[in-house]
Amino acid sequence: MNDLLLITPTEALAVVLGTVGMYVAMVVLVKVLGQRMLATMSSYDLAAVVAFGAIIGRASLGEVPRLAAGVLALATLILLQAIAGMIRVTRSGHHAVAVPPVLLMAGATVIEENMKRCHVVQHELASRLRQAGVRHRNEVAAVIFEPSGAISVLRRGDGIEPELLEGVRGAEQIPPELLR
């Protein structure tokens, strides 16, 4: 019965190292490939996330999963999330972990280079504009690709407060008449 539940100290170390390695690999891949893959999930994206979880779980738990290994892997993931949260609140840690928001549209102008960088295609942008109630591109003050992978649409009106654009890559391209 103990063979099904318990693990040796060496196996415990292997579980922790495997879990840390898979967590770091996933964080790096999301940072490199773009947070877009985890933002708004289609059925294909959901299937990929389930597969990611299975791969991470299999690599973390080893060939013969045991209850103790599963609990240890889960505790390690929770600890890594807590550490990442503490790192994100520091200025240098935020820059290392977080991805900055990126300007996709400045007024009615689509910034193609930023669209490519963020892996956003025209039909996704058009869909988000429709969801925001935009009927004409000239109603747009700015469209921003957020660190979460979401797309924010700011409409023309009273002007955008500069504080809302702090840290937005490409914000200098917004026409001055659209700013407050």
UniProtKB/TrEMBL annotation:
It comes from the Bacteria. The keyword Membrane applies. Gene3D superfamilies: bsu07140 like domains. InterPro entries: DUF421, UPF0702_alpha/beta_dom_sf. It is a multi-pass membrane protein. Residues 96-158 form the YetF C-terminal domain. It holds the Pfam family DUF421. Signal peptide: none annotated. The keyword Nucleus does not apply. The chain crosses the membrane at residues 12-32, 67-87. GO terms for cellular component: plasma membrane. Keywords: Cell membrane, Membrane, Transmembrane, Transmembrane helix. PANTHER family: UPF0702 TRANSMEMBRANE PROTEIN YCAP. Belongs to the UPF0702 family. This is Uncharacterized membrane protein YcaP, DUF421 family.
